[in-house]
Amino acid sequence: MVIAAIPIALEVEEAMVDAAIRETAEIVVKAKEKAAAERETAWRASFKPCAYLVGTESCPSSITMYGFSGGANRWLKIPLDLSQPPVTFAAQAHAVVKKTPFVTYFGRTTGFIVNYAPDSAVRFDVDGNPVEQLDRAYIPGQVELFLGRRRVPTKTFATLLGINWDGGDG
User: Same domain for 95 and 76?
Assistant: First the structure.
């Protein structure tokens, strides 16, 4: 109803309003594509090899506490010694998996994923055997908190709640 009233209110032809709406939609799509491309470029430039634990569940049992207490950086990320050659990354991650029978919020440990490059990752089973070659680095889901339309850094909110934060920048 509102769109139908615009040509009358502006005293212009309906085709002109339709064209303006289409152009605006194209501008929005292009802006979103540009922003996505810029995020991708920045991510690739800052990429560092890393590894993540994998549990029986793909979604955390308590997403709120998972997010407030550190998210993927605390509960899933396996620290790698990047001064060592990439051929050692799977063994480094497997050493952590052997000591981690249960992934907090994700159930029994079923394996791990090593991100070697933005376009190369390998999923391993709990015994350290390669199971799947991935054509893109694995990125676990992130938890974001919004109050209204404003994003609140998780660290800030966790601190206000008295929760010890060690989950990175989030």
Answer: yes
Inform me whether the pLDDT recorded for 93 exceeds 50: yes
Neighbours of 12 (CB within 10 A): 12
Range of the domain at 129: 48-160
> Could you tell me the CA-to-CA distances from 91 to 64, 81, 86, 122, 136 in Å, in that order?
32, 11, 10, 13, 21
User: Distance between CA atoms of 38 and 163, rounded to whole angstroms?
Assistant: 33
pLDDT digits (tens, 9 = 90+) for 124-169: 999 999 999 999 999 998 777 778 888 877 777 777 777 666 555 4
Q: Are residues 96 and 126 located together in one domain of the fold?
A: yes
pTM for this model (two decimals): 0.76
